[in-house]
Design brief:
Blueprint: E1 9-13, H1 40-53, E2 59-63, H2 73-83, E3 91-96, H3 101-110, E4 111-113, E5 122-123, E6 127-129, E7 134-138, H4 174-177, E8 190-192, E9 197-198, H5 203-210, H6 225-236, H7 241-246, E10 259-261, E11 264-266, H8 268-277
Parallel strand pairs: 1-2, 1-8, 2-3, 3-7
Antiparallel strand pairs: 4-6, 5-7, 8-9, 10-11
């Protein structure tokens, strides 16, 4: 199976810092960041490599953490808007929790607000971007912490599951993997951060906490089938996100070796990595 990127999307993780501490956050922003903030040079290097290999994403997502906390947030927006091909309908999207002063001030800088209502993680339909081809996604967050679906920090190998490669003969989980929207072969974008690039939108967060060393500074490698398969397996062997959502074969609540830290369910691989860092908020 070909696991190279096909979604046409890239997700710039400007920062993994966040003003919230949500349980089971799939960017691990409930813990102290393990990866430094992106720089403008990081974004420019990504753009140059896109031109070099002839890959033009149809959507650049500015994401976090909470992306508006980055001191250069506005410059990232300008850079991304200058890169995408708006004439083809390509867009820049911002994913914000809209909690507190900084995110809301950033929103007002970039949008003409007509109606501040918002429904879940949806576009603010009651606003008009001051710049074409900019989409703003926000959440109605009223509390400091929101609990998301557990699963990412439950390592399948800790549960005795041998899942990679997902499409091998006899692999019961192969069909479930194919629906994992976090993988850039199927739904979300490639992960871009200050360390490098990964095939999965959550890949930077996974690699940062577990120190797998799978991110690459060479964008072209993600489009090499062998590299893409290996990175997919290195990440998916340690991520339970898909199996919590798609199957009933694993009952996390009955697993005695699962710890809960910052409202986040963690199997030994993840818990031990966290204790090693001693970096909980």
């Amino acid at each position: 199976m070909d696991y190279t990127p096909k979604s046409g999307r890239a997700e710039w993780h400007l920062t993994y810092k966040c003003n919230l501490s949500c349980g089971n956050c799939n960017r691990l922003s409930q813990f102290k960041p393990t990866t430094d903030d992106m720089t403008i040079d990081d974004a420019k290097s990504f753009i140059k490599q896109c031109h070099d290999i002839g890959w033009m994403p149809n959507e650049i997502s500015l994401i976090g953490g909470e992306p508006t906390l980055h001191k250069d947030f506005d410059e990232f927006v300008e850079l991304a808007l200058g890169f995408v091909n708006g004439d083809k309908g390509d867009v820049v999207s911002v994913w914000s929790n809209m909690y507190g002063k900084i995110p809301n001030e950033a929103f007002k800088r970039w949008n003409e607000v007509k109606d501040d209502s918002c429904h879940g993680m949806e576009l603010f339909w009651g606003s008009e971007p001051k710049r074409k081809h900019l989409k703003w996604h926000g959440a109605t967050v009223k509390d400091k912490s929101v609990n998301f679906l557990k699963g990412m920090t439950i390592s399948p190998k800790d549960m005795g599951l041998d899942i990679c490669p997902p499409d091998r003969e006899g692999n019961d989980f192969g069909h479930d993997f194919k629906g994992c929207y976090q993988h850039s072969a199927y739904g979300c974008g490639i992960s871009v951060d200050s360390v490098g690039y990964s095939i999965c939108a959550m890949g930077g967060a996974i690699d940062g906490m577990l120190e797998l060393g799978v991110r690459t500074k060479d964008l072209s490698k993600l489009f090499d089938k062998e590299f893409a398969l290996k990175q997919t397996c290195d990440l998916c062997d340690n991520c339970g996100f898909q199996y919590e959502r798609r199957t009933n074969q694993i009952n996390w609540e009955l697993q005695d070796n699962i710890k809960v830290v910052n409202h986040t369910h963690m199997s030994p691989t993840w818990y031990n990595a966290l204790i090693k860092r001693k970096e909980t908020k």
